[in-house]
Amino acid sequence: MFMLYNLIKMLNQFSRTQLLLGKDGIEKLKNSRVAVFGIGGVGGYTVEALVRSGLGAIDLIDDDKVCLTNINRQIYATRKTIGKYKVDIAKERILDINPDAIVNTYQTFYTPQTADKFDFSHYDYIVDAIDTVVGKLSLIENAKKYNVPIICAMGAGNKMDPTRFEVADISETSVCPLARVMRVELRKRKITGVKVVYSKEPPITPEEDMSISCRTHCVCPPGTRKCTVKHQIPGSNAFVPPVVGMIIAGEVIKDLIKK
Fold first, then answer.
1. Tell me, what CATH number does 157's domain have?
2. Residue 208 forms part of a structural domain
3. Which of 246, 256, 197 lies closest to 55, judged by CA?
4. Are 146 and 121 contacting, i.e. CB atoms less than 8 angstroms apart?
5. Residue 10, in any domain of the structure
6. Residue 12 covered by a domain
């Protein structure tokens, strides 16, 4: 019985990861704090991988509630969670995985106007998984101001090939329309050295099928921002956003254990 007790003490949910990262790597992750802005299709899977790798503290920033149309791609979306805040569902799931994790949640739509809610100097890494250009630029500006590493997700909507995504500096991107806009805006601000995940796959133009369109059949939970405010409602699937989220998590983990 004593030997079994000692064995259980030695083994934990991160033992298999420690075989690859080593004890020092696991300790670095345990003592790190990452902010994930946007926990939808991409950000949700980033959170999942970071927590299952042993990250000690994580901040979740998202004002959205789960919608029926999220179920096809978002890890927190099920029939039972429709109408619940994503950050609340995520926190509960994280603590089921690692009860020792420190989870800070913000039911906030990140913009330059809400940036003062966050002390960026407390973060060891920032993940940008939000949709708006103005929000992304603000996150990058604050990351640079406080010398915090950041990685940004470029467009994952309207894509079908998860093998086409790669990690690059924003200056080296091509094809991706969102990356093109970001390059122009960052040059205006004289900001360089931004790591992104993007795809060279040309985006597909989604069908405008009014029989299943959110514009005519909105199912957003009450009190949420409507997706219909977007110029185009992007198509999505179950396999592209998760891959992007996992790629981002892998980059964050590798960079943190190298520090």
1. 3.40.50.720
2. yes
3. 256
4. yes
5. no
6. no
Residue 75 is classified by DSSP as: T
196 beta partners: 152, 168
Q: How are the residues of the chain apportioned to helix, strand and coil, as percentages rounded to the nearest 5?
A: 45, 15, 45
Burial per residue of 83-113, b for 16 or more beta-carbon CB atoms within 10 angstroms, e otherwise: ebbbbbbbbebbeeebeebebebbebbbeee
State the pLDDT at residue 149.
98
Question: How far apart (Å, rounded) are the C-alpha atoms in residues 41 and 70?
Answer: 8
Nearest to 34, CA basis, from 254, 253, 259, 240: 253
The answer as to whether 212 is a domain residue is yes
Question: What are the per-10-residue average pLDDT scores of the chain (259 residues)?
Answer: 52 93 97 98 98 98 96 97 97 98 98 97 98 97 98 95 98 97 98 98 83 64 65 88 98 96
- Here the tokens at position 8 are 């259980």
Q: Which of 242, 236, 244 is nearest to 167 (CA)?
A: 244
Task: Retrieve residue 255's tokens.
Answer: 């960079």
Domain containing 180 equals: 22-258
CB of 64 closer than 8 Å to CB of 86? yes
